Amino acid sequence: MKKLNLNSIIILCIIFFIIIFSLYDFYCGKKQSSLSNDIIILFTSDVHCYVDQNIGYSGLAAYKKQLKSSNNNVILIDCGDAIQGEYIGTIAKGEFIIDIMNKVGYDFAVLGNHEFDYGMDAVKTIISRSNAKYLNSNITYSGSGENALAQTASYSILTFGDIKVGFVGVTTPDSTNSSTPIYFQENGKFVYDFKSHNHGKDLFQTVQTSVNSCLSQGVNYVVVVAHLGTGSGYEPYTSTNMIANTTGIDIVLDGHSHSVIPNRLIKNKAGKDVVLTSCGEKLRNIGKVTISPTGISSELISNYNDKVKELDEYVASIRATYNTELQRVIGTSTSHLSVYDEKYVRLVRNRETNIGDWCTDALLHATKGDVCLFNGGSIRADIKKGPIKVGDLRDVNGFNNMICKTTVTGQEILDALEMSYRKTLNIVTVDGKWSVGEFGGFFQVSGLKCTIDTSDPSFVIVDDNGMYVKVNGKRRVKNVMIKENGEYVPIDVNKNYILVSTDYLIKESGDGINNFANHKLLEDGVISVTKAYVDYFQYLNGDLSGYEKPQGRITIE
Q1: CB 438 within 8 A of CB 511
Q2: Kind of pairing between the strands at 133-135 and 140-141
């Protein structure tokens, strides 16, 4: 047999590899062609640190993996409020949550109002730490320091085969007061502009500019990634108002109001239908939008049970770093105190609630005063009947607030009540479905009683940043009584009272309620809200039977 020379061996090797690569290309190409070319957009919103509850991030990762096995084009987007809500978010100022989201594999995100809760340095950190691109069409910076949002983009365009999709981000202007107002200021002046002027017109025009830029680059579809919300409590910056005042948008993925909207068609400024969808809160659902040759469809994925084991283990490893103290059982609750009603409407934001009564009493118990005013938006979780751990009460707060105390006049209390209750209605839902009159600054109270006359409109004037200016007309908050020596007596507008609340309200003008700003503090952050809850729960030995129903402190007519 004739021996092969070196050149022959090289030629045979080349032929061999050509055959192997041809077979690989053939089979892989065949497999690739068997995948769908529909564009699937998965989205989440208002997760609020519920990383391993409900579907959880592990379930989301499993569902995404399942879709990618049969689809070429799958992307994942978050519509804001991911990093605040439970201790796993607070302890590392959102960084643990971003690390988990990176493992799930997000492509885009938008800043919710609660992404700002840890301050602008933390915002800069999470934006740079995230593998997802943060989209922001409407927040500009005019200060002399460092712009924490410098790495955000107004929009981004992705190409899927011969289809181009533009993604535009928008964050609610209510962030300037529903987060912490001083974070957006330098030397007492607002330097972060959310385009809150002209009753939404500036916002809508700003969004339109980004949409037009996408269209000028030949996109086939425009998707707005929004943290705006729907319903009267979010006027005028709602996603429905944005759609009605713009053109060129095809799809809006929304968050902020925790609304559950599988698929809703809203007419835009030109009378064209726009798909609006919102997936609710806490990963109870995954939003799914499909763009196919037959059109646009949207749905919500619920009760998905598959998990990615490695992601569960990663979350568990994070929790292990702080779990010992949070898992400490401090007693057994005799009653269930709830943020919600039976239809899962957040009553704590528009009605007196049993948990609101308990929380405000806990703050007054921690540091004695005459009145406690506490924004309902800071009450984030139920106290359930049965064994209670430190972590359960930490989750009720959801923030890392500290208690403050100051001296205020009766008139200042009246003005703050008008501001707090200006959105309250005599109903809480429309058709038993859509929540109305919600406001995170709705006061739960202790040491005070009052009546809200909803037949009267609110005459509260606020500035472009949602901050209180004055009451310019008839007052709707009436019959205000202060508890003195165990009895309720009419409030005296000229009298001084000791107010107990949090740094968020008193020092930081939270929810735009700036009536107590710059007051001299009698106590400044000497005890955390969580510690006040733990101490009061133990003081009562877990007996919450006196709080099974609201105690009649706020009457709504």
Answers
A1: no
A2: unpaired
Query: CA-based Rg of the chain, rounded to a whole angstrom?
Result: 27
The answer to whether residues 137 and 169 touch, using CB atoms and an 8 Å cutoff, is yes
Q: What are phi and psi of 452, to 5 degrees?
A: -105, 115
Q: Which residues pair with 307 in a beta bridge?
A: none
123 token code pair = 């915002």
For range 215-226, the mean pLDDT: 98
Is CATH 3.40.50.1000 the classification given to domain 36-311? no
What letters, b where the CB count within 10 A reaches 16 and e where it falls short, cover 66-92? ebeeeebbbbbbbbbbbbbbbbbbbbb
Residue found under tokens 């007996």: 543
Kindly state the tokens that stand for 194. Answer: 């959310």
Contact 276, 252 (CB under 8 A): yes
Residue 30 pLDDT exceeds 50:
no
Burial label, 310 (beta-carbon count in 10 A; 0-12, 13-18, 19+): exposed
pTM of the model: 0.72
Scanning the structure block, which residue is given the tokens 């990618």? Answer: 68
CA distance 97 to 198: 36
Phi, psi of 547 (to 5 degrees): -115, 15
8 Å CB contact between 277 and 253: yes
Domain boundaries, the chain: 36-311, 325-556
Specify the CATH class of 325-556 in words: alpha beta
Provide the token pair at 519: 């007051």
Distance CA 19, CA 21 (A): 6
* Buried-state track 517-551, b at ≥16 Cβ within 10 A, e below 16: bebeeebeeeebbbbbbbbbbeebebebeebeebb
Q: Are 55 and 288 in contact (CB under 8 A)?
A: no
pLDDT digits (tens, 9 = 90+) for 233-254: 789 999 999 999 999 999 999 9
| Six token digits for residue 324 | 């010992």
340 pLDDT above the threshold of 70: yes
Query: What stretch of H or E contains 143?
Result: none
Residue 238 and residue 242: Cα distance in Å, rounded?
6
